[in-house]
Amino acid sequence: MNKYLISVISLCLLAGPSCNLALSAAQTEKSIPKETSAQSCFAKLKKLAGDWTHKPVKAGKVMVSLRYRVISGGSAVEEELMPGLPGAMTSIYHLDNGSLVMTHYCSLGNQPHLKATKASTASKMEFECVGGGGNMKSENDYHIHHLVITILSDGHLTQEWAANKDGKQEGAADKFESYRKGP
Fold first, then answer.
1. Whole-prediction pTM value?
2. How many Å separate Cα 179 from the centre of its chain?
3. CA-CA distance, 148 to 46, in Å (whole number)?
4. Structurally, what CATH architecture does the domain formed by 37-180 represent?
5. Distance CA 110, CA 77 (A)
6. CA distances from 5 to 1, 10, 19, 26, 182 (A)
7. Where are the domains of the chain?
8. Which of 62, 63, 120, 144 could form a disulfide with 116 if both were Cys (CB 3.0 to 4.6 A apart)?
9. Residue 75, CA distances (Å) to 42, 69, 117 in order
10. Residue 71, CB half-sphere, CA atoms under 13 Å: how many?
11. What are 78-136's pLDDT values in tens digits?
């Protein structure tokens, strides 16, 4: 056999496995899916876990007005508004077939279902009612229809809650500013 041909075959045999490793690493990198907007929003909601107040925490006792808990093995986030009070309300956030959704268990006795809009980001999440709420005869019943959560920092957020009745927004949105309560 020709010395040149033997050298080429040897080179291919030696270089082949290393080329395959590089190719296989590149294929592995491509197969890791990029985090979706819904996933990044949900991850940010999980980081809100803890107690929040409606005033900056200074000297003295401040009442907890908002509480977030990661529940069900990390598959849901529970938000409790006004914990411990008779009018306390709970919302549960979770991913559903690639979308971030929430059900609001309202003190009115209904449970509207909301879904994060496509424009939502991890710092500004906007939810719209998608119907199918429990204890509602129709979408014309008075219910929470819109929510915007704006995360200004790890310890500061705002929420804007708007209700609908007869297909239209009922009054102005209620805006709450909350601050993380320390240990």
1. 0.80
2. 18
3. 16
4. Beta Barrel (2.40)
5. 19
6. 7, 9, 20, 30, 73
7. 1-32, 37-180
8. 120
9. 9, 11, 20
10. 13
11. 999 999 999 999 999 999 999 999 999 999 999 999 999 999 999 999 999 998 789 99
Compute CA distances 163 → 4, 10, 116, 156, 168, whole Å.
81, 74, 16, 24, 8
| Residue that is written with structure tokens 């990044």 in the block | 40
CA–CA gap between residue 133 and residue 142 (Å, rounded): 11
Which tens digit of pLDDT belongs to each residue from 132-180?
789 998 889 999 999 999 999 999 999 999 999 999 999 999 999 999 9
Tokens of residue 7, six digits: 């050298």
Paired tokens of 145: 């229809």
* Alpha-carbon gap, residue 132 to 129, rounded angstroms: 9
Work out the number of other CB atoms within 10 angstroms of the CB of residue 124. Answer: 14
Query: Tokens for 135?
Result: 């204890």
| Residue type at position 178 | S
Assigned token pair, 77: 């986030």
